[in-house]
Amino acid sequence: MDPLAALRKHPAAKWVGIALIVASLLALPFALQIAGTAWIRITNLAVLFVLLSLGLNIVVGFAGLLDLGYIAFYAVGAYVYALLASPHFNLHLPWWAILPIGAAVACIFGILLGAPTLKLRGDYLAIVTLGFGEIIRIFLNNLSEPFNLTNGPKGITTIDSVKLFGLDFANTTRFGEVAVSGTIKYYYFLLAVLVVVIVVNLRLQNSRIGRAWEAIREDELAARSMGINTRNMKLLAFAMGASFGGIAGGMFSAIQGFISPESFILNESVMVLAMVVLGGMGNIWGVILGAILLSFVPEILRYSVEPLQRAIFGRSIIDPEVIRMLLFGLAMVVMMLFRPAGLMPSAVRKRELAVPKEAL
Amino acid sequence: MNRPTQLSLAVALALGLAACGQKEEPKKAAAPAPAAPAGVTVTIAHAGPLTGSIAHLGKDDENGVALAIAEANAKKITIDGKPITFKMMSEDDQADPKVGTTVAQKLVDAKVAAVVGHLNSGVTIPASEIYGKAGIPVISGSATNPALTERGIKTVFRTVGRDDQQGPAIASYIAKELKGKKVAIVDDKTAYGEGIANEVEKTLKAAKVSIVGRERTTDKETDFKAILTKIKAKNPDVVFHGGMDATGGPMLKQARELSIKATFAFGDGACTDEMGKLAGAAAEGMVCSQAGLPREAAAPEFVKAYTAKYGEIKQYAPYFYDGTMAVIEAMKKANSTDPAKFAPEMFNVAFTGATGNVAFDAKGDRKDAEMTIFKLEGGKVKPVAIVKGGVSTPFTGAAPAPAAAAPAPAAAPAAGAKKEEPKKDEKKK
Amino acid sequence: MDIFLQQIVNGLTLGCVYAVVALGYTMVYGIIQLINFAHGEVVMIGCMAAFSVIVALAPTGLPPLVIVGVGIAFAVPVCMIVGYLVERVAYRPLRNAPRLAPLITAIGMSIVLQHLALLVWSRNIIAFPQIVELRLYHLGTGEHAAAISNIQIAIILMSVAMMGGLIALVYRTRMGIAMRAVSQNPQVAGLMGVDINKVISFTFVVGAALGAVAGVMVGSYYGIAHYQMGFLLGLKAFSAAVLGGIGNIAGAVLGGILMGLIESLGAGYVGDFTNVCLLDNFLPGFTAVCEASPESSLFGSNYKDVYAFIVLILVLVFRPQGLLGERVGDRA
To answer: How distant is the Cα of B233 from the closest Cα of chain C, in angstroms?
Structure first.
């Protein structure tokens, strides 16, 4: 134990740790490539979910506003990208122009959705945001008659991919011996965006705005009497959370090349919320962990559960998909029963969320 | 523990888990490079919704593929001098395009020889981009959206007709045989339902039939009384619904509860015996279309073999069966199990399968796709007419193509008698 | 006028279905301020359980009403057990936890219940046997006279009966007093000698029983059952409960009926009000569409779900306690 403790206290320890992480993150796709390109795709989707979770974390974790319709902002961002960079309207704006536009549009939607809900209490807020999420999805599905805005259920196909430094991110380029596939290029792009988003989140959390949110979350009345403009702060929370969702949505469009309203159903909102809650609301690192776990574990189950059944029973008794969903549901229940503040709660949250031992 | 250490542990965990995934891969990837001298295992994959609201159809398709593979294995085929064992790898795409593309990537990584799937057009279209890039042929037995084969990808095929063939078929039947003058159209706002409903609308308008109502609903809806009441006010002769039996059945039932007398017409999504169960007596007399020949005219051996092993055929199993057979035929023709070699041969296959003569045109669509019009009687859908190139011929019970063995004798007199009844019923209306 | 009347009948029946499901939500929320997401799945399980019984008994010659009665008699205890177990396992340990924890657990239980049902009853769409003979009663004469069926009448009557029974339970029995006490202030109720755990379990069990009956109603009315049918139904029913005033029994019923009417009338008439040719008279840009397809509208019946949600949002913005006021405890 002692050598380890001494090592940990070494002044350079922190930097070595960070360097290790950075190195492993950069090398990750090539390690995953051995297992199959599918795993890099899964990682990319996981990073998208991390972005979403960080965005929802601002609303739910920092400001304490329960949002069950968060996926609507993801959808808005995705559709803005798709409409501005596909054959649908024959517009082909470059990604660096569209992503900010998408974020801005999502931001506006965030304010629109947040404005009517300012006076609502927790559970009502949840239902109203859920309603908004559904409304946006229904509109996206139906705005194909009489004027074709979103192409309805058929979705928008052949969305332009990201093009950077002359490299098209959809195709594979060879750097000498190494073949870097489109998926890997998107991975690095997503990683870069993720770093920026994390930095922004960290700065937000430790700023006046972040502290105002914390105050509102703990006791809104007291916050207001301290002079905090709760209305503007709440709207800001919605707006910022939504804009992160919008950026993630735009990237989703570019990576997938095809979007349809089916990808933005209520189930997805619930999953993102579960990631935030499981990871540890309000704690940026916890949320990231939650998102990674909930993105990877179902996929790992998909790959492992069926051979296991075959090995034990000789045939597949229960379909892997059903087992996957069962385990997901059970995990949510069990997690909440034994560690309700999340896997990595922030110290503040831990105090706040500790279940009081007094008997009812 | 400080944060960087925590994070590095998390990353290490992720890597470890990925490595575990890697260990699974060798067990799964069963399509080796075609170099083994002794028996070669070739994996044909099936992808479709195995959970969700149309999971019963996805399972049906999987059974069709499994049956084809079992039969091929029983025949002990040799390709390029080596005995081949076929294996099926089945994946659930949850009818969700996002999951579908992940599944597609997984199958590509597993180096399967071909993919028979998916079920929904909305999933097959993006997934086929991934298969196309990897050169793996994908053949769907149920994706009817025309866009699937219009993108110039040379490895996309389908054994089922397209919405822009099926829609006009049922529409011309409505206009000519049912003599509908006022038609109301409903769709379930899915890519399939909307697609076929729009085709029907287009054809009917061209035939100068008056469209008195155009309603839309969702595929999860169960209460249609509001829109049916609205339609009732317009007095249609025929109501066409683009959707699956999950919405078609309740809709039909509720229409009769509202005393709507119009004949209901559906596309292949609701052309199942399930309609008789869902709508009960209300389903009698409904009309629907299916792409391809009716199974009464096509291979009875398939029906026998399938029902013996899996029970009732739900819907698209014969098409998926034919899709798998097409792949195997292409492999035999090319004398190779390498997708790069047998994929071009897919354009040259021609055989008689469970759904009639199977051959593909230059786009990958089924050549000379015939459409069959069915009518529901006694709780079961029975073929009444065959539409080819816009011309409708009453179904006589005899197979138009030289199918193996005469169709089950019971079908012939029943179908023959049926030919008379529909005409009489229409005149009464 | 006939069409309007028919839409009212449709909406009323749909509304009663929502109302009965909403009762389960409102009772649980009233007592422990928890949105019981799993309630929709309880309704589904009730429907499926009754289906199994009815399908088994249908070949025998028993009269249809008896078969349905047996179905209900079987579904109710099954759902009561499920409701009790869910409360015991997933909610009771989290009674003092912050709001979010039981919400997540509820969502998790909902997923678990859905997939357990899938394992038991398969993933197919199940045709609920229609053994009760349909009889239509026409309101008025004429070709388009509105019709109400015997099943619709049964649903409306049963909903009223259940609401009446529940009100009697809550306001006329000792258990009801205990329930109201716990909902107002659990700690003080405990001090007064009320066994809180028992009361809360009882509430869940009663709610589940109501859910079972609602499930059978839904199955009989629509003729279709599916392992995912509970979710959207539950969502709309909860919205209905909030619309009327959460925790308030009469509010749940009012909210449910209003929700049904709004959906029905919205689907029936908003399309006519936004018909493209009609709009062409007032707004530019609709002429081309009017020529091409005169029967289409800007906001038709496909926006049916939206109308319900929009009304909910409007009510909550302008009257957050719901139409009839909420009845929940004074928890800070």
So the answer is: 7
Respond yes or no on whether the N-terminal peptide bond of residue C59 is cis (omega within 30° of 0).
no
Q: With contact defined as beta carbons under 8 Å apart, do A81 and A98 qualify? A: yes
Q: Are A68 and A273 in contact (CB under 8 A)?
A: yes
Contacts of C102 in chain A (CB under 8 A): 336
Torsion of CA B113, B153, B315, B329, to 10 degrees: -40
Residue-wise pLDDT for A97-109, tens only, equals: 999 999 999 999 9
pLDDT of residue B296: 63
Which 8-state DSSP code applies to residue A92? E
Chain B CB contacts of C302 under 8 Å are: 189, 215-218
First vs last Cα of chain A: how many Å apart?
43
Of the candidates C29, C108, C316, the beta carbon closest to that of A332 is on: C108
What would you measure as the largest C-alpha separation in chain A, in angstroms?
A: 73
Mean pLDDT of chain A: 84
Distance CA C168, CA C294 (A): 53
Q: Give the whole-angstrom CA distance, residue C107 versus residue C236.
A: 16
* Cα–Cα distance for residue pair C205/C215, rounded to 1 Å: 15
Please answer yes or no on whether B125 and A263 come within 8 Å at the CB atom.
no
At B185 the pLDDT is 94
Distance between CA B159 and CA B292 in Å, rounded? 8
pLDDT category, C260, cuts 50, 70, 90? Answer: very high
CB A117 within 8 A of CB A129: yes
Percentage of chain C beyond pLDDT 90 is 37
Locate tokens 């007032």: which residue?
Answer: C282
Mean pLDDT of A206-234: 90
> Could you give the ipTM of this predicted complex?
0.86
Our CA-based measurement puts residue A172 at a distance from the nearest CA of chain B, in whole angstroms, of 11
pLDDT of residue A349: 64
The answer to whether the Cβ–Cβ distance between A360 and C316 falls below 8 Å is no
Min distance C243 CA to chain B CA atoms (Å): 21
Substitution target in C222, C227, C290, C306 with the highest count of B β-carbons within 10 Å is: C222
Q: How confident is residue C113, by pLDDT bands cut at 50, 70 and 90? A: very high
Q: How far is A150 from chain C (nearest CA, A)?
A: 14
* Cα distances (angstroms) measured from residue C127 to each of B58, C130, C200: 18, 8, 35
Q: Do A319 and B3 touch (CB under 8 A)?
A: no
| B8-55 tens-digit pLDDT | 554 445 444 444 444 433 333 334 444 444 678 899 999 999 876 677
State CA A71 to chain mean position distance. 9
Q: How far is B352 from chain A (nearest CA, A)?
A: 32
CA A246 to chain centre: 11
The pTM assigned to this predicted structure is 0.82
Among residues 41-70 of chain A, which lie with CB inside 8 Å of chain C?
60, 66
Chain C residues with CB inside 8 Å of A141's CB? 302
Q: Chain A partners of C289 at a C-beta cutoff of 8 Å?
A: 146-147
Closest CA to B272 of B254, B255, B297, B247: B247
Q: Which residues have C-beta within 8 Å of that of residue B43, sequence separation ≥ 6?
A: B29, B30, B31, B86, B87, B88, B89, B110, B111, B112, B113
pLDDT of residue C98: 72
Give the CA diameter of chain B.
84
A61 Cβ contact list (under 8 Å, min separation 6): A276, A281, A282, A283, A287
Question: A39, B195: Cβ pair inside 8 Å?
Answer: no
- Out of C99, C104, C190, name the one closest to residue A274 (CB): C104
Query: pLDDT at position B406, please?
Result: 34
Task: Please tell me whether residue B288 adopts helix, strand or coil conformation.
Answer: strand
Which of the other chains make 3 or more beta carbon contacts under 8 angstroms with chain A? B, C
